[in-house]
Amino acid sequence: MKTLVAGLTGLLLAAQGALAGNITVKGSDTLVILGQKWAEVYMAKNPDTKIQVTGGGSGTGFAALQNKTTDLANASRPIKPKESTACVVAFKARPKEYKVCLDGLSVYVHEKNPVKELSLEQLEGIFTGKITNWKDVGGADMNIVVYSRENSSGTYEFFKDHVLQGKDFTARAQTMPGTAAVLQAVAKDEKSIGYGGAAYGAGAKHLMVKKDANSPAVEPTEENVVNGTYPIWRYLYIYLNPALDKGEIAAYLKWICSDEGQKVVKDVGYYPLPKQFRTN
User: Among the four 3, 63, 65, 91, which has the fewest Cβ within 10 Å?
Assistant: First the structure.
């Protein structure tokens, strides 16, 4: 009888765990403010569900996913093959990927900086240290101060791959712990330049970006990101162990990809995912 009771208790606890609605989310700093807003809105509608969202960078989120210390990993870049392989070792399956919104990765300068546009080649020159004075790109005669992110940041890696073509950032770049910190630094320093997600623009101004010297300068607007004319747009992602894609977690992910969840995307400052690209 004791064995039967213990078994029934175990089944009951297991069932309660599956329905308890405690969800942990960790990873991309770019997605922190959106992830926290998603959680706030969802918990208001589903008070039995508790969602904890923390940042640390996309690499940190993938490490937590591999270590099974988070349910969901937010990411501002696709998972790397070695990270996917580590997940296969940890939970015997490749992590499931959800595209959750679009971002126009923006280049920010101080609001008094007269420069309004830069080409990808000029950005590469500035962030690799070949261009060190604003006068060389149409600005005032003053040194350029470069702000960047830690190498655990998905935004750092995306910018390095797609703007610097894999080259290293200048050794003079000042590394900041998050996109919000980059924007705060840029907003205070007339000589500065930095980069980050579209939702972090307050306090500085974004530049229009040209694919090359002869291309038109393009604003990182929703229309230009969705149609792909803005040169440095990207998807933002959530990854998880496919075995966890059920119950409350599945319901939460389905809600994120719904019209209601995508409205939150727009409210925060990113761009909703076109319906044909939504997983649910």
Answer: 3
